[in-house]
Amino acid sequence: MSKKPFLTLEKAREIIEKYPTPFHIYDEAGIRKNAQQLKDAFSWNKGYKEYFAVKATPNPFLVKILREYGCGCDCSSKTELMLAKTVGALGDDIMFSSNDTPSDEFAYCAKLGGIINLDDISHIELVEKACGRLPEKMSCRYNPGGVFKLSNGIMDNPGDAKYGMTHDQILKAFAILKDKGVKKFGLHAFLCSNTVSDEYYPMLAKVLFELAAEIKEKVGVSISFINLSGGVGIPYLPDQEPNDISKIGIGVHKVFNEVLVPAGLGDVSIYTELGRYMTGPYGALITTAINHKHIYKEYIGVDACAANLMRPAMYGAYHHITVLGKENAECSRKYDITGSLCENNDKFAIDRMMPEIEKGDILFIHDTGAHGFSMGYNYNGKLRSAELLLRSDSSVQMIRRAETAADYFATFDCFDFYESLITE
Ligand SMILES: *Cc1c(COP(=O)(O)O)cnc(C)c1O
């Protein structure tokens, strides 16, 4: 399989005339089609709702598009809660799945009427203090410990993760919540990240559904929503088979009928908190080749850097790169594609076979639509790029401007200092 960019060279050139590289650009048509497919896949469940994990791409314009498909917002900080508020997500449209939470953020979430998803049993008391009393609806996050393995070799290590409550703690937490007058209960777990497998959600569902049945039996609490969280992945590698969301929906439905219905929990609502799956493939970082260096290896220097996209530097993540206009050229050269940070891990690709790249070539770095721009930072005085939206009618809208040096200096609280720099 090959990865197809959603921009042609011609279109990219037209955009660059107005908006210089580097920038992130998102594909509205792709985001919409995918959101509809997810909705369809879970339409068998009456209360189904996706809470978009806004940390993946915290841009109000994109979140607004997802709102049209019934999506709420999954937030984990006060600023993300504020972002949810700006797009009109309030009350049950907010899921607050935070951890190590400052108590004023619990209070802010409660003020917006959002659903608090408790990461720890000790937080019951914190929420009670911060909010005066517990909200009527509350959720708890489960961590079963051990390792979580899928048959294709994907695994993760919940036993080594800081999130959630143990089995005994979560039973106790629901008993306390019930005692304290909470009326509606939710259950949540996130056990494996970026799973390119149709098996993950059904396996996770089984763990949570069985736990819900146990909670009903032992604690007398009927769970009303089960949140499968994030973790459904995307194929970053060109030879990976993408997930089939309709199969995933069918798989969860099957376990629902096998476990929840016989337990008398057939009216449970299924929630998801997907981030990467919602926007990942529908974003790209567009950058221009500006330098070519030959020492012990061949380097192509581009005008973007790890401050625009940290995943390769941070965890060696693969992002496919297409040289626009050279889609069908032979990959006869071996390059490192680098940014200009004074860090040797500032490389978008290492020893990658690619077509011959010339200065001025435009590179399309795939799959930056989630955990891309949002992980950006200002190291080496790098300024955050613009974010653009390729509309369904193929027009282009700037949905966040690029930072300027004035933004960089603004937080010194000595803005005059910047003024003096530019007037000198
Ligand atoms: C990051 C995160 C998500 C989204 O994860 P993806 O891998 O982007 O789907 C959902 N829920 C919580 C609590 C998270 O921390």
Brief digest:
The protein has helices spanning 9-18, 28-41, 60-67, 78-86, 103-112, 123-131, 167-179, 200-219, 245-260, 276-279, 311-315, 405-410, 415-423, and strands at 23-27, 49-53, 72-75, 94-96, 115-118, 137-141, 148-149, 155-156, 184-188, 225-227, 269-272, 283-294, 298-302, 321-323, 333-338, 347-354, 362-365, 386-390, 396-400. It has 424 residues and is of the alpha/beta class. The strands form three sheets. Strands 1, 12, 13, 14, 15, 16, 17, 18 and 19 form a nine-stranded mixed β-sheet that branches. An eight-stranded parallel β-barrel has the order 2-3-4-5-6-9-10-11, surrounded by five helices. A two-stranded antiparallel ribbon has the order 7-8.
Assembly level? single chain
User: How many helices in DSSP terms?
Assistant: 13
Average pLDDT, rounded to a whole number, is 96
Segments where pLDDT lies below 50 for 5+ residues?
A: none
In total, the number of strands is 19
**Residues in β-strands, percent:** 15-25%
| Proportion in helices | 25-40%
Tell me what the structure shows.
This protein is α/β, with parallel strands linked by helices. Helices cover 31% and strands 21% of the residues. Helix 2 (28-41) runs parallel beside helix 9 (245-260) and helix 5 (103-112) packs across helix 6. It is globular, with a radius of gyration of 23 Å.
Q: What key attributes describe this structure?
A:
424 residues; alpha/beta; 9-stranded mixed beta sheet; 8-stranded parallel beta barrel
Topology overview:
Blueprint: H1 9-18, E1 23-27, H2 28-41, E2 49-53, H3 60-67, E3 72-75, H4 78-86, E4 94-96, H5 103-112, E5 115-118, H6 123-131, E6 137-141, E7 148-149, E8 155-156, H7 167-179, E9 184-188, H8 200-219, E10 225-227, H9 245-260, E11 269-272, H10 276-279, E12 283-294, E13 298-302, H11 311-315, E14 321-323, E15 333-338, E16 347-354, E17 362-365, E18 386-390, E19 396-400, H12 405-410, H13 415-423
Parallel strand pairs: 1-18, 2-3, 2-11, 3-4, 4-5, 5-6, 6-9, 9-10, 10-11, 13-15
Antiparallel strand pairs: 1-12, 7-8, 12-13, 12-17, 14-17, 15-16, 18-19
The structure holds pyridoxal-5'-phosphate.
Pyridoxal-5'-phosphate binds at residues 53, 55-56, 74, 76, 97, 190, 193-194, 229-231, 273-277, 370.
